[in-house]
Design a protein that fits this description.
Elements lengths: L2 E11 L2 E8 L3 E7 L6 H12 L15 H4 L1 E4 L2 E15 L4 E9 L7 E5 L13 E5 L12 H8 L6 E3 L5 E3 L2 H5 L3 E2 L20 H9 L4 H35 L2 E4 L17 E4 L7 H17 L8 H61 L36 H54 L8 H47 L7 H20 L11 E3 L6 E3 L2 E2 L6 H22 L6 E5 L8 H12 L6 E7 L3 H8 L6 E5 L6 E2 L1
Parallel strand pairs: 3-18, 3-19, 11-17, 17-18
Antiparallel strand pairs: 1-2, 1-5, 2-20, 4-5, 5-6, 6-7, 7-8, 9-10, 12-13, 14-15, 15-16
Length: 674
């Protein structure tokens, strides 16, 4: 809860000290004056300012305050310059009192500095009183320990939710937004519900405010859904990264992996047994067997006496086979490049067709939109009529057209969308084929380099002295040794990556369990109860305040999408007169507090209405509004800034029970000489 106990404003001028110092009570408090220029709004602005909520008034810092705080004070016919001004406010949370001090105009003290005294106002100067300086309306003021709004949130017993922002991030719901539903200021606050709410980048801010104030569980459920959506994306991205690492390493050693789980799923513990590593393009050439073959070949080469004289004929024969192999691989590379070029041409043609289809879809949708809107333009095409011959358009050159049924604009859009999907699928297929061709080309080029080095070694052997050691055999042993090492490292790497997939599988299982635990419906039974309570209180208030812009209040609902009042699915304000618009603001602000009290929501049970009798409100309706406030006097605090400009208004207040309200009456000016 929040209760203002006392407000003290001190303004130093060249004619001494002026100010305002009044206590407030639980329940209804009037700040009243005989006309609208006595400073009621300046006093109420002091409350906003002390709490760091001046953005609701329309700005930040002392610049939103009236001239009395920063420029001049009028005293009768005299005008005095303001030298310094400051505001103190004592507030109560149901357990503790603190006093907030904020300067409006002062050398060497900026307006964003707030001092909190942990005592009532009478004792702030005691030597035993603890105090702490904080900052407000600066970066992190809502989250850091020295941020005043972070402190105020805890002091008021609130736990503000983390909500989505317009830049697709998440941030805490700001107190300024929350209090724009509770503090209705004079200049902008009566235009519409939440009309004085500052823009702070929170997505669907009005919805988030109502959600939190009446304590809907959807805000927790939606956050859980957002967290799970983010978790799902993270797991899938990690899974994709593991697969990408596997593919990259496989291409490097000219291998491929069979049996990989391509999408995030719950894997069996022994799923690795179903994953096979294959060397080259042959599916049955398992890496483990290939490594064994390499080791056998290495042993056989080690058994050979590495001298040219011992294997001269074999060297010549092997050189011939090596050259044939290189030539064959060059032919394969040429074929791969030819197919790569064909794929590029196919993609280009398909993309051109897809661009045309997208253009046709846009044109058809525009035509449909104009037709559905009842366009009166002389475009007969919209009516499927030829603008030249005025006959029905038949999209065919076949004879006997009357025997065929032709597509309407709606059917044409469906057909074009189906074509679009088909072309996109085809383009993706060709792009995938390009990737496969590119991988095959890289593998072939790597193999050619190895074979070319081998051929060079064989030629060196042929031209060498017979007793020389065979360079080809040494090269082959080196290459085989290197390939064995690479493949064994590759096998180890794949095992590590498969272990990562197993760990991600465990995360995926936990994710699915949490998804299953989410409520199947958007609203819980408690949420429905709270929304129904809000609707019931709102309609009851409208009836009490004589809202009459619609023929039946039974048409009024609280939207399940926005949590704001609607009539026949339209925003209620569109059908309201100016005075009924004011009544609707009274009714909704009160209904939020009433519902929170009844359903144990998060409202601080405090409201401020500055000049609620806008647009010549009928006095009996103002009285009904005041009576509804008095009904909650033991559970809330409401401050009304009101101008008693006629006898009717005065009679409304004078006819109240004196125990039901506190009157702070300003006879001339709010800030008087002290």
């Amino acid at each position: 809860m929040l209760q203002v106990n006392r407000l003290k404003i001190i303004i130093n001028t060249d004619n001494g000290e002026y100010g305002f110092d009044e206590e407030f009570s639980r329940g209804l408090n009037f700040i009243a004056s005989p006309n609208n220029t006595c400073g009621k709004s300046s006093v109420i602005a002091g409350i906003y300012y002390c709490l760091g909520f001046e953005q609701i008034i329309g700005g930040e810092g002392e610049k939103v305050l009236t001239d009395a705080y920063k420029s001049y004070i009028k005293d009768g016919q005299n005008v005095y310059a303001v030298l310094q001004s400051k505001v103190y406010m004592e507030i109560y949370n149901g357990v503790d009192c603190i006093t907030i001090y904020r300067a409006a105009k002062m050398d060497n003290r900026q307006s964003k500095l707030v001092t909190v005294y942990f005592s009532d106002m009478d004792n702030i100067n005691n030597k035993d009183t603890e105090l702490e300086d904080m900052y407000v309306l600066s970066k992190n003021a809502a989250v850091h320990e020295k941020g005043f709004h972070a402190f105020l949130e805890k002091f008021l017993g609130l736990s503000l939710p983390i909500v989505p922002t317009s830049d697709d991030k998440e941030r805490k719901l700001y107190l300024q937004l929350l209090f724009s539903a509770m503090f209705i200021e004079q200049k902008r606050g009566w235009a519409d519900l939440f009309s004085a709410m500052p823009y702070l980048g929170i997505k669907e801010a009005k919805k988030r405010i109502v959600e939190y104030l009446i304590g809907l569980e959807t805000i927790t459920n939606e956050r859980n859904k957002n967290e799970l959506a983010y978790e799902e994306k993270c797991i899938k991205d990690k899974w994709k990264n593991v697969l990408s690492a596997i593919y990259t390493e496989s291409n490097r050693v000219c291998c491929k992996v069979q049996g990989l789980p391509l999408q995030a799923e719950i894997l069996d513990e022994g799923f690795q047994n179903g994953v096979h590593l294959v060397k080259g393009t042959e599916d049955n050439n398992l890496v483990e067997i290939y490594i064994k073959q390499l080791k056998d070949e290495y042993k056989s080469l080690s058994a050979v006496t590495p001298k040219i004289v011992d294997n001269y004929d074999e060297i010549e024969e092997e050189l011939g086979k090596t050259q044939e192999c290189i030539e064959e691989m060059y032919r394969q590379q040429a074929e791969i490049r030819r197919q790569f070029s064909i794929e590029n041409i196919s993609i280009k043609k398909l993309q051109e067709e897809l661009d045309n289809i997208n253009t046709d879809i846009i044109n058809n949708k525009d035509a449909k939109k104009l037709r559905d809107l009842g366009s009166d333009l002389d475009s007969e095409v919209l009516k499927d009529i030829c603008p030249v011959c005025h006959q029905t358009i038949q999209d065919s050159l076949l004879p006997n057209q009357d025997k065929y049924t032709y597509m309407s604009i709606d059917d044409n859009i469906k057909h074009l969308n189906a074509q679009k999907e088909m072309y996109e699928f085809a383009i993706n297929g060709h792009k995938q084929r390009k990737m496969e061709l590119d991988e095959a080309l890289q593998q072939s080029m790597s193999r050619v380099n190895t074979m070319t080095r081998l051929a060079k070694s064989l030629r060196n052997d042929i031209s060498s002295v017979d007793e020389n050691i065979s360079e080809a055999i040494v090269f082959k042993k080196f290459e085989i040794s290197k390939e064995i090492e690479d493949l064994e490292n590759y096998v180890d790497f794949i095992e590590q990556q498969l272990q990562k997939l197993q760990e991600l599988s465990d995360e995926w299982k936990e994710y699915l369990i949490r998804v299953e635990k989410l409520p199947k419906n958007k609203f819980t039974n408690n949420d429905y109860s709270k929304l129904n309570c809000l609707q019931r209180n709102f309609i009851s208030n409208l009836e009490s305040y004589s809202y009459s812009s619609i023929d039946s209040l039974d048409k009024v609902e609280i939207s399940k999408d926005t949590y704001l009042p609607i009539v026949e699915n339209f925003d209620m304000k569109f059908g309201s007169s100016a005075s009924d618009g004011i009544r609707a603001i009274w009714a909704f602000a009160m209904a939020l507090m009433q519902t929170s009290i009844e359903k144990l929501g998060n409202h601080v049970n405090m409201l401020i209405f500055d000049e609620p009798d806008q647009h010549s409100i009928v006095m009996k309706d103002l009285k009904a509004f005041i009576d509804s406030i008095i009904l909650l006097k033991e559970k809330s605090q409401v401050i009304l800034g009101i101008t008693i400009k006629d006898q009717d208004t005065r009679e409304v207040i004078e006819n109240l029970n004196a125990e039901d309200y506190r009157m702070i009456e300003i006879e001339n000016k709010a800030f008087v000489k002290i």
